[in-house]
Amino acid sequence: MKKLFILICLSLSTGLIYGQDLSREEVLQLITDDTCVCINSDKTLFNGEKTLNQKKMALGLCLLKSYNVHKKKSKELSNKGLDDFESIGEEVGLLMVSTCVDDFMALFTDEQLGDFLEDDEMESDFNDVPPPPAPQPKEDDLNIEGKIVSLNNDAISYIEVVDSFDKKHVFLVHGQFVGAKLLKKSNLKKDFKIYFKEDNFYDLSESRYVKKKVIVYIELAEN
Known about the structure:
Order of helices and strands: HHHHHHEEEEE
Number of helices: 6
Oligomer: single chain
C-alpha cells in the first residue's frame, strides 16, 4: 500500500512537471503579451521627448524582463542564452503585429517609425553574410577619415563620406569586409576611418574604365 502511494505521488509529480512544459510558441506568446502590457505601463519611457534609440532600449528591456521570467517554462528555451535573445526578439516583434500592433505603432513618431524600419532593412542588407577573417590594415594603406552621410543599396551598394575639407567621396561595397556591421543608419554623421583600394570599373557615361574606391576595411575613428 505504501509503495502504491509513493508511485501515485511520483506519477502526479511527473505529470505536474511536464504539464508546465510549454511549447516554444506558447512561451513566445506569453513574452509578447507581457511586452504589450509593458509598453503601456509607463508612458514616460516612450514619450515624444525620447529618441528612437532610447525607445528601442526601453522596448528591449520590456522584452528581456519577460523573457527571464518565462523561458524556464519551456525545455526548448530554458537552456538558451543571451546569444539567442536577438532571434527571439525578432519572433516576438512579429507576434506583436497581431497582438498589439496599434500600441506598438503609437510608440514612435512617423519619422522615427520610418527610421526604425529603414534601419532594420539596411542592417539586413549589409549584414546577411558575415565578413571573413581579415588582417588589420597598415597605416600606409589607402585610407580616408570622414563622416558617412549616406548608405545606398542600388545594383552596387555604396556609401558617401564627407572629409574634413567638406569633400565628398564615394566608396563601393564590392564584397565582404571587416566592419560591414557598422554600416547602418544609426551611425550616419559619425567619424570613420575607411581603408580602400582602387579598382577599374567601366563607366557608361564616359565610355571608358575609371578608377573607383572600394572598401576593404572600416572602423570608427578615434576621438
